[in-house]
Protein: CBS domain-containing protein
Amino acid sequence: MKKRTPVSSIMTTTVISLNTKDSLETAESLFKENNIRHIPVVGGSKVIGMLSYTDLLRISFADAVGDDEQDVDTVVYNMFTIEQVMTKNLVTVTSTTTIKEVAEILSKREFHALPVIDNGKLVGIITTTDLINFLLEQF
Structure:
């Protein structure tokens, strides 16, 4: 295993994002349709927050109801905005940050994804799943 491998070699570069005008229903649909758990929230070209599927679960019954009971989520989602639910104080990394450094950050913090920012622009996202898959490839 190379010690200085940059995170750019394993990060997701096709990033789905939201903006603060999007609804929480839209966010839930994106999570489910794309089988993802973290979505960066952008304001213009700047990343201003991160919304996780866990954030939605904290305020809703997203996993507790069936498709025919979607009205419950709609009522709850209409009570909040993405900006109210998202994490705002983000830790970010660059594409040249090493995989080891990213692993250290994620192992010490209570979140599971980091936006990858180069020159103020969102270029990717790195998650604990990406790290686990990288480690599995080493064996």
Observations:
- The chain has one domain: 7-137.
- The chain has a mean pLDDT of 89.
- The first strand starts at residue 18 and ends at 19.
